[in-house]
Amino acid sequence: MKSTASFGINCLNLRHKIYIPSQVFKTSVLAYHQEAVWRDKNYVPPLKEYLMNGSISSCACPLGLSSILGMGHADTIGECKWAAKEPKAVLAAEKMSRIINDIVGYEEAHSRPHVATSIDCYMKDYGVSKEEAVVKLYEMIEDTWKDINEECLRPTTVGSHYINIFLNLMRVSDVTYKNRDGYTHPDTMKYWLLDVSLCKRWMTRHVGLVSWKHLPTCIMKRKVHYTSVIPFAKDVLW
């Protein structure tokens, strides 16, 4: 009886933990549907309206919630509720991911039927050229970094490791869309990922790197530059 009751409680807890992320995923699907409606109607929404919907379709919140669930902490439900309310840290990750994706993938997106991007919306709202719109949008990206930094520095209702989830999502977006659309064309990322993997292995053996948190310190102290790992690839792998 005890094991049965325990199993029932665990199932109930799991149901509560999954409920909030499932609702957020549904919201993301609705955001994708809204983009499809705009595309079919050739509608270019105001920038504010576009970003409200586009930030959701960036799926930064569902990704963050998935990470929170995977951490397995006791108060997962409370942290999921926090993220689902879209505090500044979550909004920053969503907005940054959406805008950088629009900027880097602009040309390819317009080579096929596609919803208007933040560049198109900005150009329509302010009557500026594409180049001017891109400059202003990059300024908006800088503001999202300020927002996430503020969240990291001030007291919050959740632990800093939960905020770091969305900070790391922004870092991933920054690397993935650095001068190319690494999401649409993942082959452009393979050498970068190989460099990172080899770098950690080489530094573990030759520099004494214990964990990833020591990597920035090692690089800042000029112990090694990540590109220097390439000559040691054979030594590391074999």
Summarize this entry quickly.
This protein is mainly alpha-helical and 238 residues long.
Structure description:
The model is unreliable at 1-12 and 218-238 (pLDDT under 50). The longest helix has 39 residues, at 2-40. It is built from twelve helices and no strands. Helix 5 (88-104) runs parallel beside helix 9. It starts with a helix and ends with a helix. It has 238 residues and is mainly alpha-helical.
Write the layout of secondary structure elements.
Blueprint: H1 2-40, H2 47-57, H3 60-71, H4 76-84, H5 88-104, H6 106-109, H7 118-126, H8 130-153, H9 160-176, H10 190-206, H11 215-220, H12 233-237
Helix pairs in contact: 1-2, 1-3, 1-4, 2-5, 3-4, 3-9, 5-8, 5-9, 7-8, 8-9
H/E element order: HHHHHHHHHHHH
Gyration radius, rounded: 21 Å
Shape: globular
Which spans of ≥5 residues are poorly predicted at pLDDT below 50?
Answer: 1-12, 218-238
State the helicity in percent bands.
over 70%
Mean pLDDT: 78
Distance, first to last CA:
54 Å
Structural class: mainly alpha
Determine the number of helices (DSSP H or I, runs of at least 4 residues): 12
* Strand content bin: under 5%
Describe the biggest sheet?
Answer: none
Number of strands: 0
